């Protein structure tokens, strides 16, 4: 069994295209197809099948690919032992929700890294369903998804369907984040009271597997029936922070923010009561996959930033 063929299969899974994978691997497409056929024959399974959405793994293929990625990672580790003076290469793709403690953790991870190491980091802030797609189909090392605890079963079932594992990163109540100049900065208001009088910045993650509009219904149930809705959906955290400061009557529901970031941006965060205010951030990764040393270092930074945000309140 040629372990080089493992690399070929992983690249096809990442690109969903034999043509694109061959181009990325600098080889002819017929040669790549032949190599995969030889690999399938040696294993006695079919790794990929063609669909309207591209080339995707079969159930047996997904199990093989999880093992193949582990083997390739171990080969990289063994090569590093033989070349201790060679700068370590850190290529990392992570997909996460828009959260202050997560961006802070990434910044601290990079700041603490060895300047002699090569580094290429893709940091994608997006919604939970796109993160699942990124980890499952687009070659991301791991991801973080956020969901309301009331919707946990739907996400658990969906992760199992996609052959992904999860680990709890944080369970928290969302807070109302706003400018220190906000009229309600010194008041204690419920979500219903805030949303009835002020503009809400929503972060655009409205999707729950199998249950369309579930998130929208969750918050609608916490607003008075006759309330005029004033919501601005934003998909970039930097723009959302700018909006909070530029429109001092606006607010945003978010996970607790590290106090160092609140001070930097002139924000305050306050308890905001509403029904079912329990959310979870979960690490997700391919089934059977072990995180590398550099990935674990980033996860440790995530826990440190989480603790700063949780204990500062």
End-to-end separation in angstroms reads 56 Å
Helix content: 40-55%
Percent of sequence in beta strands: 15-25%
Q: Which descriptor suits the 3D outline?
A: elongated
Largest sheet: 5 strands, mixed
Strand tally: 12
How are strands sequenced across the largest beta sheet?
4-3-5-12-6
Order of helices and strands: HHHEEHEHEHEHEEHEHEHEHEEH
- The chain-level mean pLDDT equals 87
Structural class, please?
alpha/beta
The tally of helices reads: 12
Low-confidence stretches: none
Nearest-angstrom radius of gyration? 22 Å
Describe the structure in your own words.
This protein is of the alpha/beta class. The protein has 12 helices and 12 strands. The protein has a 5-stranded mixed sheet with strand order 4-3-5-12-6, sandwiched between helices. Helix 5 links the parallel strand 3 and strand 4. Helix 1 packs across helix 4 and helix 2 packs across helix 3. The longest helix is centred in the N-terminal third of the chain and has 24 residues. The chain is elongated, with a radius of gyration of 22 Å. The protein starts with a helix and ends with a helix. The relative contact order is 0.15. The mean pLDDT is 87.
